[in-house]
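Pasting as-is:
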Amino acid sequence: MHDSSILNKARKYCAYQERSQQELRDKLYSWGLHKADVEKTIAQMVEEGFMNEERFAIAFAGGKFRIKHWGRIKIKLALKQKKVSDYCIRKALNEIDEKDYRKTLEKLISSYSKKVFEKNPLKKNYRIAQHAIGKGFEPEMVWNAINQSEV
């Protein structure tokens, strides 16, 4: 494949949805490109505005929070896995509205508490907390929310 067809394929790949640089890098390698061509293509994509790591991080964090109800810890780990810079991760996490974040946690606790059939309130709260912490919410915030709600 020559440069323009690679660039066109890469543009289509990035136009479909926001991508991290690492996702594009992996895709370019899967197409059989060598390191120099991969880095040149990524630089071109950034220059053209098809790829923007900060924009990707904000879109990714917002989507995982709104759709999957992930907490900040899980979002941060997922972005780190995609090799997104710490700056972009912080920027993306700051975009999540604090009120919405707390409201989502409260809804998560409330809905999960209806699914936990446990007589012992301590065991029930523990299971609810484990679920919320597993979704990536901060343990201290989870326990405060559980203690404030009447589960």
